[in-house]
Amino acid sequence: MAAHMGSMKTLRDLRAEARNPDTAPERLHELIHLEGNRADIDSGAGWCREEVAGNPSARLDTLQELAADQDDFLSRLNAARNPVLDPGTLQQLVEDKNDLVANAARERLGLPLRPRPTHHVVHIPRIDPATGRVIR
């Protein structure tokens, strides 16, 4: 059991491996398929995905898979920022539901960014305490 525990990689080790540009592209692809999920703080699986997405050594098919994951905006965002991701996949991300992802793809393609939503300024009226009437 002790030997087995010693061979297990920690979350920190897995994430470091996933972000390391010297990690083999095949290994990076394996890292995005580890079992586990982000909801489990000790799970390296979910957290490796965003690191791989930002790694310039990741294969194009790995990045395309991450860019298509509608449940993981951080992986889509990092894939959009990765110089390896192809223009066709970037074009798909231009209309992403997440503005950060869409704008990362737009920036890479030289397109204008999505306009920021306009905020309506709420005017709070001032009340004259003596009369109870609104002061302009």
Task: Provide a short characterization of the protein structure.
This protein has helices at 2-7, 11-19, 25-31, 44-53, 60-67, 73-81, 87-93, 99-109, and strands at residues 126-127, 134-135.
Could you explain the architecture of this structure?
The chain has 136 residues and is mostly helical. It is built from 8 helices and 2 strands. The chain has a two-stranded antiparallel ribbon. A hairpin with a 6-residue loop joins strand 1 (126-127) and strand 2.
Oligomer: single chain
Give me the strand/helix succession.
Answer: HHHHHHHHEE
- Helical coverage, percent range: 40-55%
Spatial ordering of strands, largest sheet: 1-2
Strand content is under 5%
Q: Largest beta sheet, briefly?
A: 2 strands, antiparallel
Structural class: mainly alpha
Mean pLDDT: 86
Q: What general outline do the C-alpha atoms trace?
A: elongated
Q: Note poorly predicted spans.
A: 1-7
Rg of Cα set: 23 Å
What is the count of helical runs? 8
Number of strands: 2
Distance between the termini: 77 Å
Name the features:
elongated; 49% helix; 136 residues; disordered N terminus; two-stranded antiparallel sheet; 2 strands; mainly alpha
